Amino acid sequence: MTTNYRHIVPVLLISVLAGWAAGCTDLSDYDRERMEDAISDSLLSVTESRTINMDLIEDGHRIVSVHSPYALTFTRDGETETELQDSVHVTVLDTLGGVKTTVVSKSARYLGRKSEFHFKDDVVVETDEGRRLFTDYLEWSQRDQTIHSPDFVIIVTRSDSITGYGLDGTDDLQDYRLSEVTGEFELESSPASASDSDADSDSESAYETD
């Protein structure tokens, strides 16, 4: 269900306000700026939506599927930002429809012009190759296929784990860099899976630190 709340001042009223502001010679520069801001803000359109299921397609290939129980979309000057709340689930698919990466968080903001997601609170990223990322804030660029977080992060692979701050990397977690590493350890594996773990470790990308 979608409900539109369009807080738009009628064109006639805007014209009257603009004419009045122009005709008042005793208005200070500060007052004029506030008047212009008020007129600009009045053109904001807000759309409330429930049970969001939408697909984002870039260049006809990279597909992103977004699910959220509740969303507010703000539109002004042709640009949109969407606040996703009450649990967010984003799935990145490859060109054949296979799942590459999933992101789950309590809330998120989607910036349409930049094709960016800003995930907040209990963010969990999981790739199809078993890599996982845990943090409380994550920026993801759909356009560049990169991720960034200034916060504390935990990255877990099938063979080891690392913690730190200041993450920059690719959204599949194959390549990443931490500006500050606070800990790392190897995960215990059973004898039956030791050979698999060795094979996985050869394909894991090494992390970098500044």
Automatic annotation (TrEMBL):
Taxonomic superkingdom: Bacteria
Compositional bias (Acidic residues): 197-210
GO cellular component: plasma membrane
Molecular function, one GO term: lipopolysaccharide transmembrane transporter activity
Region: Disordered, residue numbers: 183-210
Protein name: LPS export ABC transporter periplasmic protein LptC
The gene coding this protein: lptC
